[in-house]
Every structure is written in structure tokens, then in C-alpha cells.
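We append the chain.
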Amino acid sequence: MRWFVAFVLCVATTGRTRADAPPIIDLGTLGGCCSSASAVNATGQVVGSAALSGTPYYSHAFSWTATGGIIDLGTLGGGNSNATAISANGQVVGASTVNASDAFPNRAFSWTQSGGMIDLGTLGGDFSYARAVNSSGVVVGDASRSDGAVHAFAWTATSGMADLGALGGSTSIAWAVNEAGQVVGSSSTPENATHAFLWTRESGMIDLTPDSCYGEAWGINAGGQVVGYVQACNGKTPPVTVDMSGRGFFWSPSDGLAVLPTFGGVSGQVAKWNGINDAAVVVGSADSPDGNRHAFMWTVIGGIVDLGLLPGGSWSSATGVNANGQVVGIAQSGSRYHPFVWSSADGMTDLGTLGGSYGPAAVVSTAGAAGFSFLSGDQELHATFWPLTPPADTTPPVVTVPSSVTVDATSPAGAAVTFSVSASDPDDAAGPVICAPASGSTFPIGTTNVTCTSTDTHANTGHASATVTVLSPAQIVANLSATAAAVNFKQAGNLLANVLRALNGGQINAACGSLGAFINQVQAQAGKSLTAAHAGQLIGSATDARAALACR
């Protein structure tokens, strides 16, 4: 287990005010007092739960879009349901009661626009709960078995519900699944500890925190990199006590487990639902020496970054990061706790509430942030959505060119030289790479500087330079002499010396004749004192020199 020492790249700063923020949208309810959002996808579709009107108190899973408003997704027969996650293509999962007598949602469901809500079943027991879904329709969560154990599951429409097992204990929970179908979560062990796990079809369930007393894996990105929470033990054999100074962790297939730093305080935590993006940007909160928590962003290369505070506050916590690197969370602002969005360009911005004193931005996608907010008077809370504009693209394409190209001249004019170039852009499409002189041009003898550019769709231009060197006949012959000596072809030394003397004296015909004699001599020794490969190399260079001299 690796522990990172805190290296804070920026100090806490106070954020921007509500006037700079995107609009706040009240998603409403299903007739009752309250609603709360739990997930949002890249199209801006928000899901969660909302109260119905009347008594007894019931709440149903909902879906909201800007065009369709809030829609009741129904239940599996009972009074309550809750949506926990939504895929990129709009598949909603969660849990619902199945009988009127059930107090809390106890059966996993999947909902689609075409198929409505369906019961995902259990592993033989009477309970299941869906917690995440990918765009291939793989649903993960936890379900009870006939023996009373609760295990993580993966469900698909074709295969049904599969038991993912446990790490030797009786309980496991799946918290997240990526597009490759890799699943992360937590499981009990034979020693009655809880450890984070990664499950794949190839390897089954792997313990990510074997040396801990407590661990949970909460998120996994497209690259199979995992984030979660880990606590160390004060002893190695039972009975053990848990060291409560828990930390966030980052696990990668190449480097294993790394415990994330704090700002000098005791503990820290990674955001539970959107704590890592595909660029391996990790967000959460960490203690400072005075005990106050600050929102952080962490990367392997950049270390931990303090995302700052809102005006009048001393506490902040990040709850998610999207593919654009925009971070959302909740932060203290005087006596209130407000949602925020942070970007590298604008810092921390107060997103505001619906009039109440408390309201987190709980989840985020490229379309926006979602959560809930108390209304004025703090008696009712409503699900909220803040549409986010992608940060302005100021990043130019990265142009890749060879550092230098060296070729023999093939005529007195030089040589036609081709080289490979490319461009990539992390934010949008890089344009074609334009080089001057272009690849395939005839470059004169000597060294020529080449400049290549690529411009993206936001008019950002990236530059790169290279050099192309075309060797003169004298340089070709000098290199030929060195090659002949390296392969121990000493009898050619006089001929090549004659070539150089002729070139220095301007006697082109004499140089051409000596090069021809050299080629004949090499051909005579091919397969004897010279290998076929060495002979071919020497003949090729001598032929280039003759071409550069326009020998007849």
C-alpha cells in the first residue's frame, strides 16, 4: 500500500458569487412536499425520488428532462420506489416495494422508456437493490440469497441476475460498474473485516485492500482505475480496532493501491458517486490541520489541489467530477451550506439554492449538476438541476513530429523526404497537420527547419518543429568509410579516400569512377569477407553518393 505525502498545489481561495452561476431549475415533485435527485446523465436526464400528494406518505422514482418535465416511474406494486442511477442511454435503475405492507424499497428494478419498470428478482432471498447501470444494460447492486447472505450481483436482460460472490464473508455490495462490465464494491471477509473489491469476468472478485480493516470501492472509470475509502488497522490479528483516520484511495491495474493525502489533517474521503472521471481526476474532501475539511482534486501527476471555499465559509466538500473536469459539491457560506461548481478557469462558484439554507450539488455530468435544495423556510426540499456550460477550450492540439530526420541526398538537388506527423486534442477535434516544407517535398542538401501546425475547432493552434538534414556526397562517403571500417572491410579504404580527395578537388568524374570501383569490389566480396547484409548496406550508400553527384 502506497501513501502519498500531501503536496498542495494551490491554497484555499474564496469563490465567486451566485451572480456568476448558471440558472437553478426546480424539478418539482409528484404532488407532495419533497424530491431529491440521485443521478444525471450526459443528456441532462435526471432521476431520483419524489413525494406523492396525500397520506400515507409515499415517494416514487422519477425521471426529469428539460422538455418532458418530471415523470412518475411507478412501483413494482408497493407504495414506494427510488431511482438510484441512470445510464448514458436512459436506462434507470433503483429499488421498489412490491407489497403495500413493505415499508422500504426492497426489490431491484430497471426502467426503460419502451419497457417500463421490471422486477430484477433476487438471488433466492427476499431483497435486492440496484445501485448502478452501464450503457450495455449491465445492472449491479446487492441481493439476498436463500441462506440469508447478501451478495453483490450483476444483471443483464439476457442472463438475469448473477451472484458475484464475496471475499470469504457473507456480505458484499456492488457500488459501480464501468462500460467494460468491471464491477467495484465492498465485501466482508472471514475475519469480519470489510474490504474493497474489483470484479471482472476474467478474474472474479479481487481484494483491493487486503491490509486494511475497512475498505469500500465506490467508483471505476473506463480505464479500470478505482477510487474508494480505506481505514488501516491498529493491529494485525483479532481482535483488531479500526484506525478511524480513514483516507480516500486510488487503485490502478498497473500500480495497485495508493492512499491519497490530506491537507495536513487526519482524514480524507473520495466522493462516493462521481469521484473519478475517465482522465483519472479524483475529487473528494480532506482535513486541514485545524480540522476543517476542504474540497480537493487529485491526479497522479499533479497531486492534491485545494479547491477553495465560498465567501464566509471554512468548510467544503466535492461530490463529483465530470468529463470536462468541472467539480461540484457543497460548501459553507456563512451560516448556510450551498452547492458549488469549480473549474480551473473560474475557481469555485456558488450555485445557490431555492431559498433555503442547505442544498448540495450531489451528482454531475457534462450536461449539468443535480441534487436538492431546501425552499425558503427550510421546510420543504426539491430536486434541482444546474445546466453547466463546458469550460472554454483554450487548449491547442498537441502536434507530434519526429525530432529530426537525416537522409542521404539522391540528386544534386537533395532528396524527397517523407515523415509522419499527427495531432491530438483532449477537448475537441484537432485539424489536419500542415507542415512547411511539407512531407514529400524535395529538401536541399544541408539542414532545413520544418514547422508544423494544427488548429482545432475553437481556433486554438498547436505548433511543433523538426529538422530535416540531407547529407552531401562528401558526408555520405565519410559515413560510408566509417561503416566499411565497422564491418572490417579495410581493403576499400584507399578507394574511399580517393573519392574524398576527388570531391575536395572538384573532380566529380574521378569521384564517380572510384565509387563505381568500390561498388564492384563490394560485390566481389559479398558472401565472402562481407555478409550479404553488410554488402547491401555499403552498396546502397555508395549508390546514393553517385546519385547525389549525378554520375553517369
User: Anything to note?
Assistant: The CA atoms of residues 120 and 160 lie 7 Å apart.
